[in-house]
Design brief:
Blueprint (H helix, E strand, L loop, with lengths): L1 H148 L69 E7 L5 H9 L18 E7 L2 E7 L10 H14 L6 E7 L7 H12 L7 E7 L8 H7 L2 H9 L4 E5 L7 H16 L7 H11 L1
Length: 420
């Protein structure tokens, strides 16, 4: 019995061991199942990653293809840039060659300008020599005329003086009018108080007792004034045509003195337009050179300085203008000065007298210095011819009051010597 009990006990123990082993196996099976699930999940994840990698490989392949195309484009652009650089180099060479040509042409132009200036100087000297010859001819004519009027002299003047002829060397032709065929014993006809021949180089052409009136073949006028005053426009208005560049601009239009000629209101005019000599930015050397050019262009000397002042509120520049004119031309220039007030319908209902009364003391002093000689000129209305003829009449009256004298080159030289 004991053996059976022992065997039963052993069987129970073995049964328990088997059960325990079964339980352990079941647990292991569960663990294995879980692991299989994990493996399946990981396999799925790996498969997804493989798919992602394949997609990335495709994307990389596409990117590489695009990069290849871009590399080709870059190569083509590099070639284009290289071609353009070569073109730029060629163009730079062309520009350099053109610059060299321009520089050579500028040198040639400067040389031509110098030649032109030399020719102008020679012309001015020739004009002065011609004027000297005319003056000598006039002096001889006056001497002959004086001999004719002496007591006891025969009245048959025709045997003393030859008949004047248009092509005679003794009497240069009138520049814009008619010649007189009357008896040579009578003084030649005056036309607007201006005569045939030029005045004497010294400034006076005859004495008051001379039986023959002095003669002037042309009126020489010099335009002076600040930038923007309307000098060039006034010159164009006087000549009745566009000769001097003129525009509505605060900057200077005239850079160097210019000479223009024309027949105006029965008179031969020589008009010299000057730059702004009153500008503080103008160098002394440039100013001196242009002053000398103005003197040569108006040789043997101007009959009148036309000081151009716009009809507008004063900017306080009149004092500098007065001092500068006296410094350049000397005190005596005021005897030959007419102030020219320019406007473009700027006066309106205001008279010039009211404008002067309301003006600055410096402006009033300018008018006083010029002997209260002034004229108003509408530079916009060129059709109004009387304003020009009245101006020229006033200039002639001034010249007649100065005993037919003009501002001579000798007077300018004396003023220049005083400056130095």
């Amino acid at each position: 019995m004991k053996q059976l009990e022992e065997k039963d006990t052993q069987l129970d123990d073995m049964t328990q061991e088997v059960r325990e082993k079964e339980r352990l196996l079941e647990e292991k099976n569960q663990i294995m199942g879980q692991r299989e699930k994990l493996l399946e999940e990981k396999e799925n994840q790996l498969e997804e990653k493989d798919n992602q990698l394949k997609e990335k490989d495709l994307q990389l392949e596409d990117s590489n293809h695009r990069l290849g195309e871009k590399d080709k484009l870059l190569e083509e652009r590099d070639k284009l840039l290289e071609g353009k650089e070569n073109e730029l180099k060629e163009r730079r060479q062309e520009v350099e060659e053109k610059d060299n040509l321009l520089e050579e042409r500028e040198k040639q132009l400067k040389a031509r300008d110098k030649q032109v200036e030399d020719v102008n100087n020679e012309n001015a000297e020739l004009a002065q020599q011609i004027c000297d010859v005319k003056t000598e001819v006039e002096r001889l004519r006056r001497e002959v005329s004086a001999q004719m009027t002496e007591p006891g002299e025969t009245s048959d003047t025709g045997s003393i003086l030859p008949v004047r002829r248009r092509d005679s060397m003794d009497d240069p032709p009138y520049m814009g009018g008619e010649t007189s065929d009357t008896d040579p014993t009578f003084p030649p006809r005056r036309r607007n108080s201006m005569e045939l021949n030029p005045p004497d180089m010294g400034g006076e052409s005859s004495s008051p007792d001379s039986p023959v009136s002095p003669s002037v073949s042309e009126l020489r006028l010099v335009l002076l004034g600040r930038t923007g005053a309307g000098r060039s426009a006034a010159g164009n208005t006087i000549l009745g045509r566009e000769e001097f560049g003129a525009q509505a601009s605060p900057s200077a239009v005239t850079q160097r003195s210019k000479r223009r000629e024309g027949d105006v209101c029965g008179r031969r005019l020589v008009l010299v337009d000057t730059p702004d000599w009153f500008c503080p930015g103008l160098s002394l050397e440039e100013m001196r050179q242009d002053e000398g050019l103005c003197v040569r262009l108006s040789a043997p000397g101007p009959h009148a300085f036309l000081l151009v002042i716009p009809v507008e509120p004063s900017k306080g520049e009149d004092r500098g203008v007065l001092e500068r004119i006296e410094e350049v031309f000397g005190e005596s220039c005021w005897e030959h000065t007419v102030i020219l007030f320019t406007h473009e319908d700027g006066l309106k209902e205001q008279s010039i007298e009211e404008f002067l009364q309301a003006g600055s003391q410096d402006l009033q002093q300018l008018v006083e210095k010029s002997g209260s000689r002034y004229h108003v000129l509408n530079i916009k209305d060129r059709a109004h011819g009387t304003q020009v003829s009245e101006l020229l009449d006033q200039v002639e009256e001034m010249v007649a009051g100065n005993r037919e004298s003009f501002y001579s080159s000798q007077t300018y030289q004396e003023a220049e010597d005083q400056r130095e």
